[in-house]
UniProtKB/TrEMBL annotation:
Gene3D superfamilies: Jelly Rolls. SUPFAM superfamilies: RmlC-like cupins (SSF51182). Mn(2+) binds at residues 97, 99, 104, 143. May play a role in plant defense. Probably has no oxalate oxidase activity even if the active site is conserved. The lineage of its organism: Eukaryota, Viridiplantae, Streptophyta, Embryophyta, Tracheophyta. This is Germin-like protein. Residues 1-23 form the signal peptide. It holds the Pfam family Cupin_1. It comes from Erythranthe guttata. Belongs to the germin family.
Amino acid sequence: MDSCKKLLFLVITTLAIAEMALAGDPDILTDFVLPPNSPPPDGNFFTYTGFRSLIDGPFPPTFKAVKAAAEQFPALDGQSVSLAVLIYPAGTLNPVHTHPRSAELLFLTRGTLQVGFVDTANKLYTQTLQQGDLFVFPKGLIHFQYNADPKSPAVAVSAFGSANAGTVSLPNGLFNSTIDDGVLALSFKTDVATIQKIKAGIKG
């Protein structure tokens, strides 16, 4: 392979790797994807009724996310889209987490929220959202939402560019896992006893 062909091969390979790194859900070659051994679909397959319970329903005592992703709504498989309704009773928090496969576009439909995310340079971006505001959390970055109002609930709708955006909770992922306590203590420059206290608080 001469130098020109080698250069062309290198450029094509680099572009292919970059495309894979930027990709979200894979493209499909059909209009939609049916689960294995499914009967021919009708309108019911493309309808999700899991949000009906939210209409005029009571507010939960703690933060709650009601999802319409591929797991709950199989018609979304291959469509690169999903949705979640986020309900924040007064004073509740959606703890720090990431979505590895999608950005999140949050629309606040009720109340106020304090939101924020941290970029790869460890810069924190925050905002206090009012009803009707939109906020985008970039793909894969650590972020949170907090209803600081001690009396009033908040409700938001979040859209994702993936049928399975994934959610990695940092508190659970770090302190409710099988990562060795010594590794966590070294990572956070503390001692094992402190790590165990944090774990006990999360599990409690």
